[in-house]
Amino acid sequence: xxxxxxxxxxxxxxxRRFEEVEWPVFDVCPICGAHARLQGHGSYSRNSLPxxxxxxxxxxxxxxxxxxxxxxxLLPSFLLPFFQHTARFVVKSLLGKVKSYRELLRxxxxxxxxxxxxxxxxxRDLDMRERLPxxxxxxxxxxLGSIETSGLEMFSMLFQxxxxxxxxxxxxxxxxxPE
Length: 179
Hints:
Elements: E1 2-5, H1 11-16, E2 39-48, E3 56-64, E4 71-76, H2 87-94, H3 102-125, H4 136-163
Parallel strand pairs: 1-4
Antiparallel strand pairs: 2-3, 3-4
């Protein structure tokens, strides 16, 4: 299971200062619900792409539940679950603010449009009250702009905690909610 965590750093700084990060303490397992402190369980590396020219090998901190023995990965909020590109790169490329590859952009558009209604519902819950255009692409651009201005990493983290999936998740994949 991946749990988003606000590390308060940009990707390159996070990679450089990984050993200094103060990780949150979990006294309840998000998988089994046991009231037991999760213990550090090392880390693994994952590629992350904050822009077209930079590739980072990003360490991901892991915890282990002493009851169910399952692991929890603490995913920095600038990353999206199952994506190499950072949340900021994905949103900025969809908004046309950074250059992306055509096929990658199509893939990101398909994913975002498949989740647009859920994103809108979440933004409405966060008190976004402005009217949106009827046209699908214009509507999506407005939603992306709202995500960007509301604080992208915080939005991504809150969305994932609420829906148990990222805002760019494959719509055919519905993860099981913890019992």
